[in-house]
Structures are given as structure tokens and as C-alpha cells.
Amino acid sequence: MGLLSGLIGLPLAPLRGVGWVLEQVVQEAERQYADPAPIHRELAELEADLLAGRITEEEFGLREDELLDRLEEITAGSGEDPAGPDGPVLQEGSQ
């Protein structure tokens, strides 16, 4: 019966392959989204832009808040320390 069910299921094999590929793509996207390293890099670039005068304090504050919120979301889900490898993350009013 195994041979018969294998032959009957053969036309569905490409669909199972596509399903596996989609699952791998979703897992990789989730892994990349949950990686805090790009957010730390963006925060450093943002601070450099502010110090170089390429953005205003207001733009800096808005973008920093977005990045810190995303970092908090990631670290809350993983149980990591939001300070990351470079030390504590400063938020408004915590200076």
C-alpha cells in the first residue's frame, strides 16, 4: 500500500516543496526582524547624522523613539537585555 499511496501523492510533491520553501523564507524573515544588531547600527548612524547636522533634533527624537520601541519589542519577546552589547540604551528623561 505504501507504493500505491506514494504514486497517488506524487502529483502533490511540488506543492509540498513550495510549502517547505515558504516556511523557510518566513523563518528567515522572522530571524532577521528579531535581530537587534541592525537597530543598534541605525541608532549609531542616527546619532552621527545629528552630530553632523544632517538632521534636526526633532527628526532625531522621532526616529530614535521608533527604533527604541522596535528594540524594546524585540528584546521583550526574547528576554534579552535591551542594553545590548554596547551598554545601556538611554531613553528620554533617563540621563
Quick structural summary:
With 95 residues, the chain is mainly alpha-helical. The chain has four helices and no strands.
Please give a structural write-up:
The chain is mainly α and 95 residues long. Helices cover 71% and strands 0% of the residues. The chain has four helices and no strands. The protein has helices at residues 2-9, 13-33, 37-52, 57-78. The protein is rod-shaped.
Average pLDDT reading: 82
Helix fraction? over 70%
Described by strand count, sense and barrel closure, the largest sheet is:
none
Helix/strand class: mainly alpha
Number of strands: 0
Portion in beta strands: under 5%
List keywords for this structure.
95 residues, 0% strand, mainly alpha, disordered C terminus, rod-shaped, 4 helices
Topology:
Layout: H1 2-9, H2 13-33, H3 37-52, H4 57-78
Helix pairs in contact: 3-4
